[in-house]
């Protein structure tokens, strides 16, 4: 390869020194260069043409980015031969590096991905691929907070380093892996990486400095401050005794920053300040201040010191210095929204600035800045590929959302301006079910594409392979390391393939701009005026309850007891629902009063008319509640049949968020009635007969016409086939939570289906009825809600689900679902049909007293967009056999009379 690895390293240092590049117009390119490039083009020497452009950018870094980005446009053909492909690979890696130093981390990642995929697809054997593609690519992922992906790339880099016996590279990778593990809070693995790195490093001073800097950071995060201080102090002394140069000065600067962070944690602000100033001095002396990310971070830390000292105005000065380093503000101090990009350090500085502004009493400006922090965080979240990474990141931003809501609520109280109420709804939406919203939109967009593109087939195969590996990970009792590695590789391939799909089909690109900064005002206008949307936000300090009615925010209340409410609901659900009905039966008055206490905390101040429709948008542990069974009056009534349940006055359904509800509403209703039901009357393992399921199937079969599959006919394959064809899909079987991760699971005759096995299908039913235990239950994610089967079906495009929050009573579930279908057949909307089915249970005067308890009749809830579904009534025996019998009788009668006439005719003859 023409460009040696040493040349490339020199180029990186040189570009780092010059920092952010400035775009130059094409006409500034010298005439001699134009002639050289034209001559090479005439000779069809593509590889030399590419290297000439790279060489020019090496000597003219201020023009490197715009000039290099025009290379593909200016080239006359694609690379064909190996030297040309190697040159093109070098071009892509240069573009990745230049984009990083221009501040565009997302674009930089894209170019490194292109470079790596180009390297793999063309099977290039290029020295240094790890150092100039893999390593900076992983570092970019850590800047975004995508530590899971960073670790995957770092492991690839480590494998390469070990294969090439490049100990220096291995040490750097171990250090970076330690940073990733530390950022995930996995301190054990982080320390193990440092130890492994030190074994590779031997006694090389620079490498030990690098590792000890990170080790001190780990101890600092673990709050082992004395140990952290000792490690970093020794590290600084080791470096200060050496003569610094352009390269080694960077590590000393990093050590000063780490030392400052440790002293900041110890509240030794003056000493921390000293270290931060030393770091800035190193930056100015050796890099002329052009180590911009380090400079920006240092300014932010200095601002935090001033904030801790209640010197808010000075803190803001340093936070503005950070923003100036990022190129986001000028002398006017205005922040253009279009310039906001995804970066953890940008999220932090906007959040810290909002705290300082709030301290000064500038609540409006504080709210604006914290929303800028959420915007930057949202741009990061959108670029993350792995679902679990997205969910983790979304949960981490919820604290900021809570602070933003608190500021907006205070402004609303003071000004009474409706725009602050809209802002609160906007922020709640930004912190709720965003990953699910992306999944719903992606499924809908894929369903609209009628194409046989092989990329979609490859995607389906990868998703199947990923599901298989997740199943293997869940069920394996032995060593799962190999399965984990295979799983990571498959997810990596899927991410690359999905990017290819979005390039080929731009309509699949999800809108990145909603919600945020008042954009919820438009979705509010799309809500039905007659329905009350009740959205909850349960933070670490406060609970917020928002009522939306008539396309406006009608009421917002703040409850300053979030920890107590969480504990109360947890104990209530655990005691009275998840542990069976005994506590409710044995202590009816205690249950009555506890239920009313929760009702008053959640809905007590809201006023509704009789039979108003409520659409509940729960948050965190509130998602484990069924509101139908909440007691609305605090005066205990001994007769359970007469208890004042909320269902007696209001009709309820549920939604994951306003945006998911609107997207589910956009699903085109299937007009052709096609009911499919799967009924497992025997448990798979012990073949125990479940009579209630058989009765449920029998009851529904008398009401609804369609396909009814039982036991051997109701396998996993039958389930997926039914999913693709039915407009209403009924599943009556066992459901449970599997493994340590509490993975929602459906049991069929031949096998299980896990939540992660549900992926986008060709079509999706309007309604899925999960007449099974805990199908709306699952592991809790702080910002996404309950990761349940109900949620999984929503993600792949279903209009809505009826699902169970706890272990359903077979008799009650059978009767209520049958009545619900009968109501839907009469033209009632789904939630109304379920509402009346539950009321019908309560109004039956012949039940035993305990059967009026909500444990029996209230586990099933409807989650999704409410609408009517098309069903075909079952044919009665007379309808089924009456017409054929009549025709046969008529035919027989006709034949009889014909024969009789013929006999008479013969006699006359």
Describe the protein's architecture and organization.
There is one protein chain. With about 900 residues, this protein is an alpha/beta fold. The protein is built from 37 helices and 17 strands. Among the domains are: about 1-125, no CATH class; about 450-505; about 520-650, no CATH class; about 660-875, Rossmann fold, CATH 3.40.50.1460; about 880-909. Strands 16-15-12-8-6-7-17 form a 7-stranded mixed β-sheet, with helices on both faces. The protein has a 5-stranded mixed β-sheet with strand order 3-2-1-4-5, with helices on both faces. Helix 3 packs parallel to helix 6, helix 6 runs parallel beside helix 8 and helix 23 runs parallel beside helix 30 (about 660-665). The model is unreliable at about 1-25 and about 905-909 (pLDDT under 50).
CATH level-two architecture of the domain at 660-873: 3-Layer(aba) Sandwich
Alpha carbon gyration radius: 33 Å
Number of distinct helices: 37
Helix content: 55-70%
Strand content: 5-15%
Number of strands: 17
**N-C termini distance:** 113 Å
What is the overall silhouette? globular
Q: What is the name of the CATH topology of the domain at 660-873?
A: Rossmann fold
Summarize the biggest pleated sheet: 7 strands, mixed
Structural class assignment = alpha/beta
Q: Order of strands across the widest beta sheet?
A: 16-15-12-8-6-7-17
Low-confidence stretches: 1-27, 905-909
Average pLDDT figure? 83
Blueprint (SSEs and pairs):
Blueprint (H helix, E strand, L loop, with lengths): L4 H14 L12 H12 L3 H14 L4 H6 L1 H4 L7 H20 L3 H17 L7 H16 L2 H17 L3 H17 L3 H15 L3 H17 L3 H16 L7 H18 L3 H19 L4 H17 L3 H14 L18 H16 L3 H21 L3 H10 L1 H18 L2 H13 L3 H15 L5 H22 L5 H24 L16 H5 L5 E8 L4 E7 L2 E8 L2 H17 L3 H5 L1 H16 L9 E5 L33 E4 L3 H8 L9 E5 L11 H11 L2 E7 L5 H10 L2 E5 L2 E4 L4 E5 L4 E3 L12 E4 L7 E4 L3 E4 H7 L4 E5 L5 H16 L4 H14 L10 H4 L2 E5 L7 E2 L3 H32 L1
Parallel strand pairs: 1-4, 4-5, 6-7, 6-8, 8-12, 12-15
Antiparallel strand pairs: 1-2, 2-3, 7-17, 9-10, 10-11, 13-14, 15-16
Helix pairs in contact: 2-3, 3-6, 6-7, 6-8, 7-8, 8-9, 8-10, 9-10, 10-11, 10-12, 11-12, 12-13, 12-14, 13-14, 14-15, 14-16, 15-16, 16-17, 16-18, 17-18, 18-19, 19-21, 21-22, 23-30, 23-33, 24-25, 27-29, 31-34, 34-35
């Amino acid at each position: 390869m023409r460009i040696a690895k040493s040349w490339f390293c020199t180029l990186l240092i040189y570009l780092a020194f010059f920092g952010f590049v400035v775009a130059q117009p094409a006409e500034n390119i010298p005439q001699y260069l134009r002639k050289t490039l034209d001559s090479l083009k005439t000779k069809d020497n593509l590889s030399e043409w590419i290297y000439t452009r790279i060489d020019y950018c090496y000597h003219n870094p201020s023009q490197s980015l715009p000039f290099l980005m025009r290379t593909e446009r200016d080239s006359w053909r694609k690379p064909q031969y190996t030297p040309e492909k190697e040159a093109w690979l070098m071009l892509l890696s240069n573009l990745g590096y230049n984009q990083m130093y221009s501040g565009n981390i997302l674009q930089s990642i894209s170019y490194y991905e292109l470079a790596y995929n180009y390297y793999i697809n063309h099977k290039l054997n290029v020295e240094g691929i790890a150092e100039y593609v893999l390593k900076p690519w992983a570092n970019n992922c850590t800047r975004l907070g995508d530590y899971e992906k960073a670790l995957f790339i770092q492991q690839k880099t480590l494998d390469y380093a070990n294969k090439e016996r490049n100990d220096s590279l291995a040490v750097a990778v171990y250090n970076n892996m330690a940073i990733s593990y530390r950022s995930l809070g996995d301190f054990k693995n982080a320390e193990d990486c440092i130890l492994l790195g030190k074994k590779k490093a031997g006694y090389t001073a620079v490498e030990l400095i690098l590792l000890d800097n990170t080790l001190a950071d780990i101890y600092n995060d673990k709050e082992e401050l004395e140990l952290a201080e000792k490690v970093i102090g020794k590290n600084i002394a080791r470096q200060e005794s050496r003569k610094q140069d352009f390269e080694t000065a960077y590590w000393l600067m990093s050590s000063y920053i780490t030392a400052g962070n440790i002293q900041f944690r110890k509240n030794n602000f003056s000493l921390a300040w000293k270290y931060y100033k030393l770091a800035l001095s190193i930056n100015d002396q050796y890099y002329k201040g052009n180590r911009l990310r380090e400079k920006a971070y240092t300014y932010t830390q200095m601002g935090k010191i001033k904030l801790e000292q209640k010197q808010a105005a000075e803190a803001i000065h340093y936070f503005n210095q950070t923003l100036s380093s990022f190129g986001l503000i000028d002398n006017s101090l205005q922040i253009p929204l279009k310039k906001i990009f995804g970066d953890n350090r940008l999220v932090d500085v906007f959040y810290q600035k909002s705290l300082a502004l709030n301290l000064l009493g500038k609540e409006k400006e504080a709210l604006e800045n914290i929303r800028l922090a959420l915007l930057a965080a949202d741009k990061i979240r959108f670029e993350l590929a792995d679902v679990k990474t997205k969910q983790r990141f979304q949960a981490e931003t919820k604290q900021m959302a809570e602070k933003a809501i608190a500021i907006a609520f205070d402004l609303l109280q003071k000004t009474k301006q409706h725009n602050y109420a809209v802002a609160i709804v906007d922020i709640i939406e930004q912190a709720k079910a965003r990953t699910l919203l992306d999944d719903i939109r992606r499924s809908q967009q894929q369903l609209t594409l009628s194409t046989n593109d092989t990329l979609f087939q490859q995607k389906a195969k990868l998703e199947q392979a990923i599901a298989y590996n997740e199943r293997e990970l869940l069920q394996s009792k032995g060593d799962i390391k190999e399965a984990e590695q295979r799983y990571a590789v498959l997810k990596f391939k899927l991410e690359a393939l999905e990017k290819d799909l979005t390039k080929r089909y731009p309509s699949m690109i999800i809108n990145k701009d909603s919600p945020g900064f008042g954009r919820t005002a438009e979705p509010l206008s799309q809500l039905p005026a007659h329905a009350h949307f009740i959205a909850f936000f349960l933070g670490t300090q406060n609970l917020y309850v928002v009522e939306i009615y008539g396309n406006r925010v009608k009421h917002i209340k703040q409850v300053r007891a979030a920890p107590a409410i969480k504990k109360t609901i947890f104990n209530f659900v655990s005691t009275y629902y998840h542990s069976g009905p005994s506590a409710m039966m044995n202590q009816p008055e205690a249950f009555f009063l506890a239920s009313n206490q929760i009702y008053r905390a959640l809905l007590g101040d809201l006023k509704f008319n009789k039979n108003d429709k409520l659409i509940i948008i729960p948050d965190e542990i509130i998602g484990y509640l069924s509101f139908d069974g909440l007691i609305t009056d605090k005066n205990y009534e001994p007769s359970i049949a007469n208890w004042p349940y909320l269902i007696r006055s209001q009709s309820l359904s549920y939604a994951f968020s306003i945006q998911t509800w609107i997207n589910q509403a956009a699903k085109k209703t299937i007009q052709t009635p096609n009911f499919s039901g799967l009924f497992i009357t025997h448990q798979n393992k012990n073949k125990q007969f479940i009579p209630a399921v058989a009765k449920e199937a029998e009851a529904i079969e008398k009401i609804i016409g369609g396909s009814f599959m039982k036991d051997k006919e109701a396998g996993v394959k039958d389930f997926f086939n039914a999913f693709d064809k039915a407009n209403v899909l009924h599943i009556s079987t066992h459901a449970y939570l599997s493994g340590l991760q509490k993975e929602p699971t459906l049991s069929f005759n031949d096998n299980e289906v896990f939540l992660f096995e549900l992926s986008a299908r060709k079509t999706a039913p309007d309604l899925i009825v999960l007449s099974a235990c805990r199908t709306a239950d699952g592991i809790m994610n702080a910002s996404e809600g309950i990761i349940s089967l109900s949620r999984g079906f929503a993600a792949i495009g279903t209009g809505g689900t009826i699902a169970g929050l706890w272990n359903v009573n077979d008799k009650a579930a059978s009767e209520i679902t049958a009545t619900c279908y009968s109501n839907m057949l009469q033209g009632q909307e789904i939630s109304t049909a379920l509402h009346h089915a539950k009321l019908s249970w309560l109004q039956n005067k012949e039940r035993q007293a305990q059967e009026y308890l909500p444990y029996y009749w209230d586990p099933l809830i409807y989650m999704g967009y409410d609408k009517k579904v098309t069903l075909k009534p079952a044919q009665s025996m007379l309808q089924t056999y009456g017409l054929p019998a009549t025709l046969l009788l008529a035919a027989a009668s006709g034949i009889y009379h014909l024969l009789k006439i013929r006999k008479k005719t013969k006699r006359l003859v």
